[in-house]
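Supplementary Note 3. Input sequence used for the single-chain structure prediction.
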Amino acid sequence: MIIGLVTVGVGAILSTKEIEPYADYTLVVGAVLVVLSGSLRMRNK
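The predicted structure, written as discrete structure tokens, is reproduced below.
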């Protein structure tokens, strides 16, 4: 989950630096990581 949040943070920084295609992909990958890790964590509980 922390890796996903860091990835979302990197995507946010890239979006402010006007590197649009990479920023979009990074934000999507980060969001998917957060959702997957959250669902796996809830499944294990």
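The mean pLDDT is 80. Residues 20-44 form the longest helix (25 residues).
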